[in-house]
From TrEMBL:
Post-translational modification note: Carbamylation allows a single lysine to coordinate two divalent metal cations.
Source superkingdom: Bacteria
Name of a matching Pfam family: Amidohydro_1
CDD domains listed in its UniProt record: D-HYD
Protein name, per record: Dihydropyrimidinase
Amino acid sequence: MRTLIRNGMIVAAVDEFKGDVLIEGEKIIAVGENLDPMADHVIDAAGKYVLPGGVDQHVHYSFEFKGERVRGFETSHAAVAGGTTTVVEFVNQEQGKGMADTIFEFDEKEVSKQAMADYSYHAVVCDPVDSTFEEIHDLPNRGISTVKLFMAYKGMPFHSDDEALYKALVAAKDAGVTVMVHAENADVIDILQKKYVSEGKTAPYYHALSRPTRVELEATQRVINLAAMAEAPVYIVHVTAGEVMKAIRSAKNDGLPIYGETCVQYLMLDKDDLAKPNFEGAKYVMSPALRTKADQEALWEAVDNGWLNAISTDHCGFDWESQKHMGIDNFTDIPNGSPGVENRLGVLWTYGVNTGRISRQRFVDLFATTPAKNMGLDHCKGHIGVGMDADLVIYDPDKTSVISNENSLHGVDFSTFEGYTQEGEVTKVFLRGKLVVDDGEFIGEKGDGKFIPGKPFGLCFNEAKTNKELDQSKV
Ligand code: URP
Ligand code: ZN
Ligand code: ZN
Ligand code: ZN
């Protein structure tokens, strides 16, 4: 069966042009002008943008914080409704178990039958024994090409020290596995948290004060140094501040393979949101903490210039009433993280593209093309081209709405972007050729999403790639 999407403005990371996309089965088989009038279905996309389905390289559908768990893959249709067709999930290694075994047990139990977006996985190092670091070499054979370590969260099962970080960097570089790091100084945060709580300063705003920019800056500089010592690339997740971005940019300028992303909320919100009355501030408790308007501008500049190469969501579906309220008397008990996977396209389009901060090309690059490259998924995801998966979004720029939790599929009781205007609407989405959003409504089914193995030697290895590694990464 062939579907032809005609006369849309097809946007790529490098250019855009008015034309047609022809889909057969799960794949794009032609992109050009005046294609096959014999298609079974013809969709007129005149006046609309045709975008590659988004790749969100940073989501949490299994994260647990002090016993509270986020909404799972049963809410992954929110991603699709928002134009994100591939999500990459962090899976915390179980103690005494291999990382890949932990991942694929979770996949079997919770993901494969429920996913409504395609997905891939990051392995999170939680049990820093020799066999864990040895396993890193084997992860690409199982379709896992990224590992994550948390420098933050002292005392939690997923916290890592410098020893674990360095060992992971050394093991990962030979295997072409990208090490991703949540960079914050856990010890200083712990001291500051205890200090504020002992002074009776327990409101959500103290979350931000206990995690100042310097705790992120120090850890970022430290991991840059560890990576340099290990002669390995490293990817810093959720960069929040201008000063932190500058540390990454300066390392890049020194020729080091240091990469980073930011997230939508750090471009849009600031720490004043944490001061909202009646415990509303808890909705914005996430780590690292929200910063300032000046930081937002520095981050916009960074994504425009490629100093940070992707915009993710760090999506965490925690409920405000039933979960965030755990910390009503103590901000350190508020589950960290906020929902957003559904809003990435609409918010970035409205406040990035339509304000002139980033071009449509930069948007597509940050939203889909480069995340796919970071994750070793670019053989099938992130770009509208012949042979690629037919993951496509038709975006109508003329519709305007107000973001509200009332029409959200996140499955929680609040929206991080409640009340923000959204310019444009995701009207149709194809997931590997299947129409899963029509007229702005999700019409897919549980199980539509499938596991996409990530290939090793992703973008972070570009500078270090030898021909041999290049060959290996393509087989
Ligand atoms: O607050 C956040 N970001 N929660 C999710 C876990 C993490 O740190 O990425
Ligand atoms: Zn994190
Ligand atoms: Zn995260
Ligand atoms: Zn192309």
